[in-house]
């Protein structure tokens, strides 16, 4: 697709979700289509090894084969444009932990070749690359982390710091030659959850050309499950004033239909024999209820109504709902040289 074709591609509002981890099914794929979802970044690994992640890719290949009218694997921004024309939802692969590359930097390029486009440098704990937001101390990016950042930049695998601690996040922004993403988190000024980001991080992210995907996971929302659409959109407006509207998108972190046992896998993996309640509590360790205005993909378009009511223009709303993510994908998914800070 030529640059002229990309400029002319404006058949209504794009809708892109920067992160979901649902219990995937035909029902959810059909809801994506009913909700007009053009692309969704899906988590395909938390604590999985390389081979286990390949098995997850095999499962996705079966879903693509069984539901070709609903979903298609995407590797580029142009793939998303084509999926939209074809009436399908483009699926982007990502990891919420660097576990799939184990301790082998060569697996970065292999995972990119298999279709991965995002990788968090850490989940909640310390990894071989960076520090997670639940650690008491944050020594920053490790020696391996510096090498992996350079390799991710080279091949076009986006650095995601959604679960990472402050120093590690700031160092990743500084070390990366390409803009990074925080695909699913919120500003700490609005709700001080451990994973939400400080003004310092937000400003550094915006100045470097990175992207923030606002999360709809209740533990990261002001007032939790009772959070209102107006409050959510007002937080986005304040963040836009701080870092610019062109740095904002949605990364809902929707975990639709997942059993509560998945929370234990996400938080605990294989690193402890104890239950790690993380952002939950011993009294309520499972998934909290979603806000009533965002239950599944069919509610995604309703966020646009809230943005407009908050004072965003139609053009700004279109950017946040998907346009900013698509621009970022165009800049980020190819080999180094195809994308740069702006």
Write up what this structure looks like:
By secondary structure, the protein is α/β, with parallel strands linked by helices. It has one domain (13-332): TIM Barrel. 39% of the residues lie in helices and 11% in strands. The protein has 12 helices and 9 strands. The chain has helices spanning 3-8, 26-34, 50-66, 77-86, 106-113, 143-155, 166-175, 199-207, 229-243, 261-268, 300-310, 314-332, and strands spanning 16-20, 39-45, 71-73, 89-95, 116-120, 158-160, 181-182, 211-214, 248-250. Strand 1 (16-20), helix 2 and strand 2 form a beta-alpha-beta unit. The longest helix is centred in the last third of the chain and has 19 residues, at 314-332. It is globular and about 45 Å long. It starts with a helix and ends in a 10-residue tail after the last helix. The relative contact order is 0.15.
Give a quick account of the main beta sheet: strands, pairing sense, barrel closure.
6 strands, parallel
Broad shape = globular
N-to-C CA distance: 22 Å
State the secondary-structure class.
alpha/beta
The number of distinct structural domains comes to 1
Set down the secondary structure blueprint.
Layout: H1 3-8, E1 16-20, H2 26-34, E2 39-45, H3 50-66, E3 71-73, H4 77-86, E4 89-95, H5 106-113, E5 116-120, H6 143-155, E6 158-160, H7 166-175, E7 181-182, H8 199-207, E8 211-214, H9 229-243, E9 248-250, H10 261-268, H11 300-310, H12 314-332
Parallel strand pairs: 1-2, 2-4, 3-4, 4-5, 5-6, 7-8, 8-9
Helix pairs in contact: 7-8, 9-11, 11-12
């Amino acid at each position: 697709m030529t640059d002229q074709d990309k400029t002319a591609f404006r058949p209504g509002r794009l809708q892109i979700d920067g992160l979901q981890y649902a219990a995937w099914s035909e029902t959810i794929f059909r809801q994506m289509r009913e909700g007009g979802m053009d692309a969704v970044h899906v988590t395909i690994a938390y604590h999985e090894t390389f081979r286990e992640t390949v098995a997850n890719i095999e499962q996705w290949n079966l879903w693509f084969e069984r539901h070709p009218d609903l979903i298609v694997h995407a590797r580029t921004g142009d793939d998303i444009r084509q999926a939209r024309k074809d009436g399908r939802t483009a699926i982007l692969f990502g990891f919420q932990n660097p576990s799939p590359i184990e301790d082998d930097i060569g697996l970065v390029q292999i995972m990119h070749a298999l279709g991965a486009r995002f990788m968090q440098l850490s989940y909640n704990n310390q990894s071989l690359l960076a520090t997670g937001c639940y650690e008491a101390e944050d020594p920053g990016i490790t020696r391996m982390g510096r090498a992996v950042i350079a390799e991710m930049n080279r091949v076009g695998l986006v650095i995601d710091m959604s679960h990472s601690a402050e120093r590690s996040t700031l160092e990743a922004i500084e070390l990366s030659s390409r803009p990074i993403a925080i695909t699913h988190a919120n500003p700490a000024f609005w709700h001080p959850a451990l994973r939400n980001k400080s003004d310092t991080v937000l400003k550094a992210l915006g100045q470097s050309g990175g992207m923030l995907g606002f999360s709809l996971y209740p533990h990261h929302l002001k007032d939790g499950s009772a959070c209102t659409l107006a409050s959510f959109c007002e937080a986005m407006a304040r963040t836009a004033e701080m870092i610019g509207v062109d740095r904002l998108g949605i990364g809902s972190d929707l975990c639709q239909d997942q059993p509560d046992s998945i929370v234990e896998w996400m938080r605990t993996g294989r690193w402890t024999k104890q239950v790690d309640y993380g952002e939950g509590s011993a009294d309520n360790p499972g998934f909290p209820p979603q806000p009533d205005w965002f239950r599944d993909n069919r509610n995604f378009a309703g966020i646009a109504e809230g943005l407009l009511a908050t004072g965003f223009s139609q053009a700004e709303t279109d950017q946040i709902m998907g346009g900013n993510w698509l621009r970022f994908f165009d800049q980020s998914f190819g080999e180094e040289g195809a994308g740069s800070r702006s």
